[in-house]
Write a structure and sequence with these properties.
elongated; 25% strand; five-stranded antiparallel β-sheet; six-stranded antiparallel β-sheet; 20 helices; Beta-Lactamase; 23 strands; alpha+beta
């Protein structure tokens, strides 16, 4: 390290003895005082230092330097130690600043980073004084103060402030800071968009331009500054909200929250503003909708129930008491009371449907029976929907109930009439099948008679042929069973039982009808062509009713082919791509008159003399009661095809 040379000083004559003693005493006191100050400094974390202003080499470094950066004290005296250990990002700027400050000033301060022996970054505040020789910097002295903790705290504060500012800027509400004099100090982006101003246009303007005549912010700030002041609170509740005014003159209802904030510049009132236009519009629409519901229930036949999910109270609108025979207000007004009036066979199903609908936040539609005061039951169809009051679970359930008892009774009577008519049609068809039935039964009866006569002759012999007699008796039994099966099939067709749905093989049903009508087909010389698809799934239907439909179609086809030399009847069963099964009866007759195609399935429509025209009408009613379809069409090469289809699925009863 370079040393500085000074000119030798001329020796002065010794003063008198008294003065010399005095100077010695002062000198010792100064040395003692300086040593005391140095010891004081060495007990702190402040590092005192001295360096050559031209080489930047340290000539003295306090012992605290070891604790500061972790380097041995002798390292600090190495040439270029300071420059080499300044953080690389700060090095050029720190050297430039020190060179310039040493030339221009007698003292300066600056902050920079150094790298410790462990590789950690240490922030330092350097206080420097400059000694000059012939006007040029010669020696610099100073103190190094560790300010790492302060720098970290400042960085944390800056990050926190940045996050807070980001949250404020992204807030869904307008946030406006207003000084105690009523002037706007800050607005966020939402405030700009809400009021239609640019930020620079609002800062410094009175808050009064945004909410004129409604909020005296200056008074609020003054009142809050007093000891007796109450905390600032929410202004506006959505019923009588504060009115905000936009730059273009448009106004809107708003909720405003106020809070105070102490800053370096004094009291600031922070206002949070929310535009509630959409909320008020939704509430108005809901009130109007509820009023329309109640009015409709009062004037119409529908009954509306509004159920509070928490209290389980039900508010009925409409004629619920009148419809069920109760006095006004007598019908139960609770969920439990309503449930007790449900038909026992419907109660569990309806309660389960309601729970599932509530859990899934959706409505439902169902039908159930509810008990009137006289003990009879009324049929109701009910549509329900949950009411969502904001996010979360619904608070209420609206139910619209329609009394459909008259319609249900009418449907039941119509079904009874239809079944009775179908039964009459089946019985009337017995007359048309008389010749067929006589021929069908004549064969097994004749065989039985012949076999019985043969058995009698065999028994009259001196030595009866027992094996032959046994064979004849077996034939008699077989023919008897055949005749019995024919009679049983006819009894099944003619009986008037209630409909019973079961899983059916449609191919087998068509085969059974073919067996019943086999003799009639043979007598007319009709060739039957079976065309059945293999491995068809079953359908759910009433066997007797489907047999009647097939018999009606085959009978019509037989009559259409009367007198033909080569009559041909195709019985076809197929499965469509959508899973529906299609049964078709196809004849080779003259086809359907064009004028009758559209009315073929209407009652009393017939082209046959003496016919009632009810067979196809009854067939259509039966198929539609099975949720199916029936249709007719002429074939491209002549003849007609009448088909019906039944959907897949369903459950047996």
């Amino acid at each position: 390290m370079a040393t500085f040379k000074t000119e030798p000083r001329t020796k002065e004559p010794d003063p008198p003895t008294a003065n010399a003693a005095s100077r010695d005493t002062v000198g010792k006191e100064q040395i003692t005082r300086a040593a005391g100050f140095r010891r004081l400094l060495e007990t702190t974390s402040i590092v005192q230092w001295e360096a050559d202003a031209r080489t930047w080499a340290f000539t003295y470094v306090g012992p605290q330097a070891v604790r500061l950066l972790g380097y041995p004290i002798e390292r600090w005296y190495e040439p270029d130690f300071w420059v080499a250990h300044v953080h690389p990002d700060d090095r050029d700027e720190a050297v430039r600043f020190c060179e310039q400050a040493a030339q221009e000033r007698d003292a300066y301060e600056f902050e920079y980073r150094m790298i410790s022996a462990s590789g950690q970054i240490v922030w330092l505040h350097d206080v420097v004084a400059v000694d000059r020789l012939d006007g040029a910097p010669a020696v610099i002295r100073g103190f190094l103060i560790d300010v790492t903790q302060r720098k970290r705290a400042e960085a944390t504060a800056r990050a926190s402030d940045a996050r807070l500012r980001q949250l404020i800027e992204q807030a869904p509400d307008a946030i406006i800071a207003v000084r105690a004099d009523g002037q706007i100090a800050f607005v966020n982006r939402r405030a700009e968009r809400m009021f239609g101003y640019r930020r620079g246009d609002l800062v410094g303007e009175p808050f009064e331009i945004l909410m004129p005549g409604q909020l005296d912010v200056e008074r609020l700030a003054r009142d809050h500054a007093t000891e007796a002041a109450q905390p600032l609170s929410r202004i506006g509740d959505g019923v009588e909200p504060v009115t905000g005014v936009c730059r273009d003159g448009r106004s809107f209802p708003a909720d405003v929250n106020l809070s105070s904030l102490e800053t370096d510049e004094g009291m600031v009132v922070v206002t949070t503003i929310r535009d509630i236009s959409e909320r008020l519009a939704a509430e108005t629409a809901r009130r109007e909708s509820e009023e329309r519901f109640r009015l409709a229930a009062t004037l119409g036949a529908d009954i509306i129930g509004e159920t509070d999910i928490e209290t389980r109270q039900v508010e009925w609108s409409g004629k619920v008491d009148e419809v069920l025979g109760y006095e006004q207000g007598e019908f139960p007004r609770t969920v439990e009371g309503w449930a007790a009036q449900l038909h026992p066979e419907d109660r569990d199903r309806v309660m389960l449907l309601g729970k599932e609908a509530n859990d899934r936040l959706r409505g439902m539609q169902t039908e159930y029976r509810i008990r009137a005061k006289d003990g009879s039951y009324r049929h109701w169809t009910v549509r329900t929907a949950p009411i969502l009051d904001g996010p979360g679970r619904p608070t209420k359930i609206i139910s619209v109930c329609s009394d459909v008892t008259d319609q249900v009774v009418a449907r039941a009577e119509a079904l009874q009439h239809r079944d009775a008519l179908a039964h009459v049609a089946r019985v009337s068809s017995l007359g048309e099948l008389t010749a067929t039935l006589a021929h069908e039964l004549n064969q097994p009866l004749a065989a039985i008679l012949s076999d019985a006569q043969a058995a009698a002759r065999l028994l009259d012999r001196d030595q009866p042929d027992v094996p032959k007699i046994r064979e004849v008796l077996r034939d008699i039994v077989a023919d008897d069973r055949r005749a019995s099966a024919i009679i049983q099939r006819l009894r099944d067709m003619m009986r008037r039982d209630s409909a019973a749905r079961e899983r059916l093989d449609l191919c087998q049903v068509v085969r059974e009808v073919r067996e019943i009508m086999r003799s009639g087909l043979t007598m007319r010389g009709i060739t039957v062509v079976p065309d059945f698809a293999a491995d068809l799934p079953t359908v759910v239907a009433d066997r007797i009713q489907i047999q009647q439909v097939v018999m009606n179609l085959v009978t019509n086809a037989m009559q259409a082919m009367d007198g033909l030399v080569e009559a041909r009847l195709t019985l076809r069963v197929r499965c469509r791509d959508d899973g529906w099964q299609i049964v078709s009866v196809i004849d080779s007759g003259p086809g359907i008159e064009p004028s009758m195609v559209d009315t073929l399935f209407e009652p009393f429509t017939t082209s046959r003399a003496g016919g009632l025209g009810m067979g196809l009408s009854i067939s259509r009613n039966i198929i539609e009661s099975h949720s199916g379809q029936i249709w007719a069409e002429n074939g491209p090469d002549g003849g007609a095809s009448v088909s019906f289809g039944l959907p897949p699925g369903g459950s047996a009863q």
